[in-house]
Amino acid sequence: MIAAIDLHHCILTTSSIAKMEQFNNYQGSWFEVMTSNKDKLTLAISTMILATFFYRWTFSRSSINGGPCLPPGPRSLPIVGYLPFLSRDLHKQFFNMAHSYGPIFKLHMGSKLHVVINTSDLAKVVVREQDEIFSNRNATIAAVAITYGGRDVVWSDNNKDWRNLRKIFVHEVLSHKNLEASRYFRRDEVRKTIKNVYSKIGKTVDISEIAFSTEANVLTSMVWKNTSDEKANGDQIAAELQIVVANIVELISKPNMSDIFPSLAWLDLQGIEGNMKRQLDRLDRIFTRIIDDRIRSNYSNKSNDGVVHEGKKDLLQTFLELMDQKYPTSINITQIKALILDIMVAGTETTTTLIEWAMAEIMQNHDTMKRIQEELLQIVGPNKIVEESHLPKLQYLDATIKEIFRLHPVLPFILPRSPSQDCVVDGYTVPKGSMVIINVWAIHRDPRYWENPLEFNPERFLTNKYDSKGSNLNFFPFGSGRRLCPGVPLAEKMQMYILASLLHSFDWSLPKGEDHDLSEKFGITLKKRKPMFAVPSQRLSDVELYM
Ligand code: HEM
């Protein structure tokens, strides 16, 4: 306790007392941790002070090895750095700080140096011109714990294994051929969703729950549709998987003292790493069971399993066949599990978040809702439900989704990048191993790139053709460069398919007494602060279309 008071005193006696008013959840969480783990704390403090002084000495010099100086940035406190002054909404705070410190600035969170990039021009330097150097991730401790030690695609650094897994992701998991072959899974699941919503006509529906289960069911079908115990246990497995995925997303979004003060990581003060390892145990049990079951049934009946129709394999079957190839194009069981994990986590949370924002914006903007529904009537017609073949013709809906991504990028800082060597951006040194944050939320609202940036206006995407692959760095909700999201083709299909179906088959209103609300909750994904609830009513006259 004494140590905790000392630490508090040290903070209060600085000239920054006034700024303490800005203390918030983020600060609250670290101070709570410090004061609620007294036993471990005394030991921790001495380790932390030594490590911090060493680290800060390294990075506080105006330049490294005589190169250009570090970017400008706010003054920070000993040990905790700028941590006490961080607000709950980091994306907005960094946007405002760019006005004081410029398009690139630095700050310390604990002992970790962070460099924040705020303009399209500098994002281009990082994700294009120096893409190779900036393609490490600097994974958090929670991310490493859940991904079998960073052996997946999302969190691995740029190395031979990552390049191989990424190739498999792009050419096998989400290849054009594979996506075409799996269109029936998507159709079945979206139809189930329509039926499910129809059963709730006039009642309040949780949009996030609907989007999550639709997406999760599509992904599980794509991965192991043909598991022999699928019928008996498939639903149970999918339900457990959904709980574990939700736990993982929650844990990965929590600020972790162990990341901020790596010298304390062994104490796992908040228990995040331990909890993540427990989630991994649960997941691993599910994956092991599915994989063993498939290997067994492949062995006993070679021609049957893994093949849905002739020539159509599920992903698990494809992965198992890749195991027989030679290194480096082969994969092992752990990598197969890590790939399945990536598909489930990266695919569900992101699409769910986007659909929630989309329903909130569209319901608030009546003209947009009207135009989308008119387009659907024209392209799909009043006597049919939406099919994937309609999607490329829904241009106004496509423009609306892009506008929603612009105002509410699902990953407001994309995912962190970290340089593999010291390098120079905009005349400043960005040291090897520092955490580079690209504030795509700020770039998407910058008046230099967008007219009336705060206005919701899908028309801007009808006249300006931006793609989702980050070709133009004024708009890159899926990242850009060699770490661009490889899920783009599936994400584009699913978000459009789910939204088009919800808006064509139903009219929507807010539950009685509810107001429109667009407030944000910052995290690794930028979610709606209040969950999106809405009440569906029947829109198509033929009841058969809902069965
Ligand atoms: C709304 C939907 C989605 C959004 C907004 C989104 C966004 C992103 C972003 C911003 C990144 C980091 C890119 C970078 O660092 O430049 C990323 C990476 C990734 N995404 Fe997505 N994503 C979505 C859906 C999906 C889906 C459906 C999948 C797969 C089923 C997926 C799989 C991945 C993977 C594996 C990576 C890591 C790529 C790498 O590091 O090499 N994502 N995503």
From TrEMBL:
Residue sites binding heme per the record: 485
Cited SUPFAM superfamilies: Cytochrome P450
Keyword vocabulary terms for this entry: Heme, Iron, Metal-binding, Monooxygenase, Oxidoreductase
Cofactors demanded by this protein: heme
GO MF annotation terms: heme binding; iron ion binding; monooxygenase activity; oxidoreductase activity, acting on paired donors, with incorporation or reduction of molecular oxygen
Family listed: Belongs to the cytochrome P450 family.
UniProt name for this protein: Cytochrome P450
